[in-house]
Amino acid sequence: MMNGYLDESDFTMVEEGFTTRDLLDNLLMEVSQTTSKGAFFVADLGDVVKKHLRFLKALPHVKPFYAVKCNGSRGVVRTLAELGAGFDCASKAEMALVQSIGVPPAKIIYTNPCKQISQIRYAASHGVQLMAFDNEVELGKVARSHPRARMVLCIATDSSRPSASLSVKFGAPLKSCRRLLEMAKEMNVEIVGVSFHVSGGGIDPQAFTRSIADARLVFEMGAELGYKLCLLDIGGGFPGTENSSVRFEEIAATINSALDLYFPEGCGVEIIAKPGRYYVASAFTLAVTVISKQEVPWDLLSSDDEEPSRKKSFLYYINDGLYGSFSCIFFDHTCPTPVLHKKPCPDPPLFSSSLWGPSCDGQDRIADGLELPELQVGDWLTFENMGAYSIAAASSFNGYQQPQISYAMSRVAWEALQLLPGKLAQPEEEDRVRVCTPLSCGWEIADILCITPVFAPARIT
Ligand SMILES: *Cc1c(COP(=O)(O)O)cnc(C)c1O
């Protein structure tokens, strides 16, 4: 049963016995014959399917609304729509993007708490009702420009940690919530729920517990004022790769305990989340090529090495950088590490190496202190886990053009996608947020998917 957002022409089907890595190798084989190929991505949409199944299994009472700002690429948005996820949009452009492929407005939440009036009007005229706010001024704007809005009060998360830096800019402190709820009453703005967002990749699962408890307090305040709040939004911040300090399942277990305590099943509150990086980080691999190199004396970078063969080091210039796909380095503090495509001879001498982007900015450095065999102009390097806040935050500085994306999916993932029972629900029949029912069958295929290394490259650096 297909929803029609994604079909087989949108990606390369990876048949049994092959992996997405093989596809990447094939593409690299082809491009190494030509010299003009730019950097490109291979996106494993099956990995997104796998993440969705993991999400439904770990958080069975929570409905995911994908945070489009993290990676709004066509294949990702179509796959998530096909999976029945909802969408968290930060702007008019993001709402237009998901609506352009046919996602109904009931599956969209417009969460930027500080919105331009013209964009509030856009939401109103395009049927998007769920919106977030955290201040008085915003309530006034919504009362005038979108009287049918269903508002979610965004509360601050514990901002005592530096990782929670978003809370300085966004989120109402608990002590102003009552006042905001009262103001909304006066202005006739409908409040339907409470949201929060723990930023920083979910490093501290207890942050979710504290925020869920805080949200409960706001629900109580609402009840005292005569509100019947029915929606809790627990935000995003779940890790998207296996090398994070806390596993997604561990965070999910903490969230489930807190939900059992403060929002038990049957309490009449619908729970949603807004995962971004979780869905896309590991699905994207970036391939870049060395466009130039420079040999520098070893002692320019360090002086404590005695081996004569190491008395030199290299600066390599590659065709994507900090102002392009590697923008995640400064937006998301990632430390990308390259995988060499060409197998070097056994035990090659290693040289201290650094990687630099193609722009004219001296700050455009991607990695440093790497121990690599000597590379040549035209050699290809790949970087894994490049799906989150990479292309989404790229600029056109120095005339940079975004890399092409080759989408792929294994047949088993494609089949799992079609078995998802939650997709049978017809969104048109629903007036409330109803994204997907938890998976009641098909776990067998889910388990197969989640243990098969669909994308398991052999590391050779
Ligand atoms: C960016 C954002 C998200 C998604 O964050 P991830 O860390 O990518 O999961 C969710 N909610 C809000 C309010 C955000 O601003």
From TrEMBL:
InterPro entries: Ala_racemase/Decarboxylase_C, De-COase2_CS, De-COase2_N, De-COase2_pyr-phos_BS, Orn/DAP/Arg_de-COase, Orn_de-COase, PLP-binding_barrel
Name of the encoding gene: AZIN2
GO terms for MF: ornithine decarboxylase activator activity; ornithine decarboxylase activity
Membrane recorded as keyword: no
Source organism superkingdom: Eukaryota
Database matches in Pfam families: Orn_Arg_deC_N
Cofactor(s) needed for function: pyridoxal 5'-phosphate
GO CC, any one term: cis-Golgi network
Database matches in PANTHER family: ANTIZYME INHIBITOR 2, ARGININE/DIAMINOPIMELATE/ORNITHINE DECARBOXYLASE
Keywords tagged on the record: Polyamine biosynthesis, Pyridoxal phosphate
Biological process, per Gene Ontology: negative regulation of protein catabolic process; ornithine metabolic process; positive regulation of polyamine transmembrane transport; putrescine biosynthetic process from arginine, via ornithine; trans-Golgi network membrane organization
Name this polypeptide is given: Antizyme inhibitor 2
Active site: 360
Sites bearing N6-(pyridoxal phosphate)lysine, chain numbering: 69
Orn/DAP/Arg decarboxylase 2 N-terminal domain location: 45-281
